[in-house]
Amino acid sequence: MKKLDGATVEVIRSYLFSAAGEMRRTLIRTAFNPVIYEVLDFGISIYSRKLDLVAEAPSLTFFLGANDHAIRRGLEYVGEENLEPGDIVLLNYPYWSAAHTLDVSLFAPVFAPGAERPFVYTCIRAHWMDLGAKDAGYVLDSTDMHQEGLIFPGTKVYKRGKPDREIIELIRFNSRMPEAVLGDLNAQVAATRTGQRRLVEILAKFGQEDFEAAVERILEHGEQLARKALLELPNGSWSAEDLLDDDGVSDDPIPMKVTVTIEGDRFVVDFSGSSPAVRGPVNVPLGLTETMSKVVFKSLTTPHSPTNSGNFRPLDVIAPPGNLFHAVYPSATFTLWTGIVGLELIYKALAQGMPERLAASSGGDVPGFMMVGIHPDTKRFFAVSNNEPVGWGATKVHDGANATSHLSESLVRNTPIEVLELKTGMFFDRLELRTDSGGAGRFRGGLGVRRDIRFVSDGERLSVMKKTKTSAWALAGGHEPLRNGMILFPETGAEKRVGTYRAAVKAGQTARNLTAGGGGYGDPTERGPARVLEDVLDGYVSRETAEKIYGVVIKGDRVDEDETRALRERKKA
Amino acid sequence: LKSLDGATVEVIRNYLFSAAGEMRRTLIRTAFNPVVYEILDFGISVYNRDLDLIAEAPSLLSFLGANDYAIRKGVEYVGEKNLEPGDIVLLNYPYWSSAHTLDVTLFAPIFAPKEDRPFAYTCIRAHWMDLGAKDPGYVLDSTDMHQEGLIFPGTKVYKRGKPDREIIELIRFNSRMPEAVLGDLDAQVAATRTGERRLIEVFTKFGRETFDEAVTRMLEQGERLARKAMRELPKGSWSAEDLLDDDGVSSDTIPMRVTVTVDDERFLVDFTGSSPVVPGPVNLPFGRTLGISRVVFKSLTTPLSPANAGNFRPLEVVAPPGTLFHATYPSATFTLWTSNAQLELIFKALAKGMPERVRASSGGDVPGFMMLGTHPVTRRFFAISNNDPVGWGATPTHDGANALNHPNQSMVRNTPVEVLELKTGMFLERLELRSDSGGAGRYRGGLGVIRDIRFVSDGEFLSVMKKTKTRPWSLDGAGQPETNTMVLFPESEREKRVGTYRTRVAAGDRARNQTAGGGGYGSPAERSPERVLEDVLDGYVSPEAARDVYKVALTGSRVDLDATRRLRAG
User: Which chain B residues contact residue A334 at CB under 8 A?
Assistant: First the structure.
């Protein structure tokens, strides 16, 4: 094989990313449900013939890694030899697709004209609205996979370019929201076809040989970057533990443990000490555990370069089958939130070895909520969710960011208030930063938010968060932030603080989502009094906390330097 | 069209019934799960090209009528023009298939060689073990269809004779018991192919013209028989009401009402006035309501001749959409037990107009139970049920039969004790007639049973019965029988009497199924003392009931005639 010049490799690489980007734009423009076109709850990836990731489009981080696992399992199941040009395959068997049943992966082989074998694959995962699970919206208390909706093990929904009527009709009859679901399926198909056109184009332009050589070079380059960065990380082995609130069926907290080992050019993430799989739907398929680990690994090694599978060659992920982090059939997996808490757990372990490179905990979790019901105007069934922002953790050199989507979802957006008010029976009385929610420290954790919801129609309200019973972690003597929590029916006799919970609501009732701040870094009494004053004037920190925690006495809008000095000395003593 | 001789019509009719019978034997011999091969929980029907029933094989009564409705809806959905030789279609969308999701109907068009249109259809419904509903086994508290498992709206599982891999695999991945389910699917396919061969044979043997003419003649004869019998029925209009226990979600009782009107031309069964649909899974698809009404109508008009569509032409059934007896999407329909109470409700109305033709209530319901769990020996998942027998109602001329399957299930069998003990974690300590359970009367209702169950492994136990809060009805002043009841954990601190219920059980726990007797007929004080004595000696009636209810005084094993006379006079 001739040696390609770097410029050509770069042109082909950019071409591939443009193809992924164009698929993304097609999906956003054609999808039916706002979780896709507003929240960007999807993942788009392009694979080489050997199923190495060669390009992807920015979207839900978790979905991207999950695609890598899913396409391998899906292809193994269908068999490459059974794929024909124009075929499109659906996969949502959770243990293979590496997500819950509603995150449906659609993959397709791409053939050059006249070729017998595909030269690349595309994979598009998107969140569908309903596949007839035991409950509409989110399932919070399933005890096996079969309660979680229609399963596609790798089902050809298009055969040789034509839709399979039987499968399309099965979907229509097995969904509570068939128009939205089939609309989203069609959007994924349209995006797949867009990708196919571009990929066939690029192959025709450069030829098979150059294309394959470029792919090899792209992957090698990805690997080199990762290995180089890995050499700069400290070597060692660090463990961390945490508790997941519960499994949705019992109230028992669930122990999680990870050990991360860095040794030369190996990076091993091992979940062996975590709880065995539990009855409720918080078990995580191995592919998602791999993905969590990939997110962490990439953020430490090659955060600025687009992803390809070369990046991950130094990474090993271990979770024994039957463990919380390696669900096997028929374990329930619907409430994927464990993956979010698990992601932070890996950082928590690493922070022991490299506190200067990492932020403290960012809220610990994603505080989501959802309403399902009959729309007051359209009289049609809706199920619309929103994942609320949290405060990010402080680092050795700066405060955490306020009210940002959690690390695990950093490429997705929240659902705009206008969409929520238009498409559901919710009206928002208030959305503001939550004073004192950031963990105090020399550098302060970012602030979470408070959102007041008033229901204007009857329905069901769900909250989804799995770390509300224990606080998120801080670093280097910083303080833990306030926790996530949803307050149902605040300031009434029925007031109740909940984590993951499903409740019927009536028009006129209210709920309040309080989201966690980020963990603090360093001793709060070492924070510059001027910064504390600024926080107080901005409403980030209350005067009481300034005095009690930060040891800063504020009179009017000034720091009382003498009293502050005296107070901080007393605190040290 | 030439006129056929009666002998040829009869030969073709028998040929068709033999085809159905052969399908039945194929199904029984090849099915994987005992609900099919032991209990005969299936329905096999043969239709002409216009979808008129022309033959069926004896099996679950309410399945047979349901097939008639299902195949019309299924062919309408798929479109006759889209059917090709060798196609086999799955249907379990409850509002069309007229049953719950686990009763999967499989229908197939039959084409004569080189013909463009089918000349007949076969339809085989069988109870599958699992399609991934919210709970394994029976679903008792669903609130919409989607919680009840994978739905086939009319899905070709075979296309031109070949299995569709995508559909087969979808079934495999969406079932908790894929081997049993795919085994039963294959059995239904095998039975379909058997029927196809025989039907093509008869069609080829006699030719299209003769075949079509014979079918027309069969249907006309079926209609004539029914109309003739109808002329002999009393004319009038009678209503009855009853209460279903609950919907499985709340504990409110559910009112049911029927009015039956018989005139010279028409037998009208009208459920208007019954409860609107309820949240829980006791709503009935309309095809089921039709099927149950047919069972009653046929039993009164043409009970001894095999069924065909002609038999039912005088019958009209009304149930407004959105009511308990006409569920529409997405109403929950899993617990079909409503139809047991419904069958009896129709008889209850008719008993007001023709008490001499109808028996009293037969237990009011089907007292079923089921265990599911991991088998202690095989370590595999099981879900096996049994419908216990009840006592049948008394008539103006004789006592009710003891311990028989409810009239709604009179062609099916129970699950043998040996099968239950082999395939589940239950050991059966006792199965005996339940003394005093039959309604007292001049003619006594038949007796129900007591069955004592001891669990030998952990699992879940379900009882399914929907008429335990109110008693079954009697006739002409007789006593009402005891109701069905499941007693969980009897003689322990946890003892609890339940109707429809799901509970976890551990090895060593016990349960007792007490099933209802039949309603009595006439005043018990008019029953002959010798018969009462015989009942006491047989253990059917206790000495106390003999004295207090029948007013018969016994001394040892003799009737004390004087004392009896005094009791009956007092």
Answer: none
The residue of chain A nearest to residue B147, with distances taken between CA atoms, is: A134
Measured CA to CA, the distance from residue A276 to residue A273 in angstroms comes to: 9
Q: For residue A155, list chain B residues with Cβ-Cβ distance below 8 A.
A: 166, 169-170
Query: Among A76, A60, A72, A171, which Cα is nearest to A125's?
Result: A60
Dist. CA B264–CA B561, nearest whole Å: 50
- Best B134, B145, B182 member to test A by mutation, with max A CBs in 10 Å, is B134
Chain B hits for A166, Cβ within 8 Å: 155-156, 164, 166-167
Contacts of B172 in chain A (CB under 8 A): 153
| Tens place of pLDDT per residue across chain B (570 aa) | 567 899 999 999 999 999 999 999 999 999 998 888 888 889 999 999 999 999 999 777 777 788 999 999 999 999 999 999 999 999 999 999 999 999 999 999 999 999 999 999 999 999 999 999 999 999 999 999 999 999 999 999 999 999 999 999 999 999 999 999 999 999 999 999 999 999 999 999 999 999 999 999 999 999 999 999 999 999 999 999 999 999 999 999 999 999 999 999 999 999 999 999 999 999 999 999 999 999 999 999 999 998 999 999 999 999 999 999 999 999 999 999 999 999 999 999 999 999 999 999 999 999 999 999 999 999 989 999 999 999 999 999 999 999 999 998 877 889 999 999 999 999 999 999 999 999 999 999 999 999 999 999 999 999 999 999 999 999 999 989 989 999 999 999 999 999 999 999 999 999 999 999 999 999 999 999 999 999 999 999 999 999 999 999 999 899 999 999 999 997
Strand, coil or helix: A11: helix
d(CA A517, CA A509): 26
B338-369 core/surface letters (b: 16 or more CB in 10 A; e: else): bbbbbbbbbbbbbbebbbebbbbbbbbbbbbb
Give the DSSP per-residue string, B447-467. P-EEEEEEESS-EEEEEE-S-
Chain A residues with CB-CB distance to B under 8 A? 93, 130, 132-136, 144, 146-147, 150-156, 164, 166-167, 169-170, 172-176, 330
ipTM: 0.92
CB contact under 8 A, B153 and A172: yes
